[in-house]
Amino acid sequence: MLNSAVLVLNRSWMPIHITTAKRAFCLLYIGVAKALDEQFEMFNFDDWAELKPNDGEPVAGLVNGVIKIPKVIVLLTYDRMPKRTVRFSRKNIYLRDKYTCQYCGRKSSAGELNIDHIIPRSRGGRSTWDNVVCSCHECNRKKGGSTPEEAGMSLIRKPRKPRWTPYLGFQFDPQRYKEWLPFLNFIDVAYWNVELLEE
């Protein structure tokens, strides 16, 4: 439970990070953050420890009982926003395209997909958000070194750079993390390994 994800908000209640429950408890205990409940009420460590958990709520053990795992904490003095952008990576391309071949529409696992350059690299196509899509192996072979028009294929949707917020680094479950929804506009599900170079 101490590795559970906790959303961190800055002083202006803007999401800036995800941390573990263990780190969140440390921040609460030293007084630099407060826990936020479902009614947006803020609690310091002592007040939070006095709250009775509901059935099924995640808890951590204390010497004299248990304490609810907070889902959201607010930093009391930090008011900046981290400057981050969505990484141009294989995983984020797959996430943007929902693990779906952008030519035939078949959904597949990562191992059954690859990255296709709409304008092939052999013809000057660049590795950019608007020139790469997920494709299944069969469609990739069919298209080969041609453009989609030349191969008689069409894209399901035009690719573009995603507008996800990049601080979410795990599989987001809206049911489990419903307390986060008021603070999130777009959801980034994960980064994946090495950032690809845009040409």
Describe the secondary-structure layout.
Elements (H helix, E strand, L loop, with lengths): L4 E5 L5 E6 H9 L3 E4 L5 E2 L1 H6 L8 E4 L2 E4 L3 E4 L14 H7 L16 E5 L14 E5 H7 L56
Parallel strand pairs: 1-7
Antiparallel strand pairs: 1-2, 3-4, 3-7, 5-6, 8-9
Structural descriptors:
two-stranded antiparallel sheet; 2 domains; 199 residues; 20% strand; five-stranded mixed sheet; DNA Binding (I), subunit A; alpha+beta
Quick structural gist:
This protein has about 200 residues and is α+β, with helices and mostly antiparallel strands. The protein is built from 4 helices and 9 strands, in the order ββαββαβββαββα. The chain has 2 domains: about 1-85 and about 165-190, no CATH class; about 90-145, DNA Binding (I), subunit A, CATH 1.10.30.
Number of helices: 4
Instruction: Compute the CA-based radius of gyration.
Output: 22 Å
Helix content: 10-25%
How many strands, which pairing sense, and closed or not: the largest β-sheet?
Answer: 5 strands, mixed
Biggest sheet: strand arrangement? 2-1-7-3-4
Number of strands: 9
What is the residue-mean pLDDT, rounded to a whole number? Answer: 85
In total, the number of domains comes to 2
Q: SSE order in H/E notation?
A: EEHEEHEEEHEEH
Shape: elongated
Distance N terminus to C terminus?
A: 42 Å
Poorly predicted sequence stretches spanning 5 or more consecutive residues:
166-170, 186-195
Which percent band covers the strand fraction?
A: 15-25%
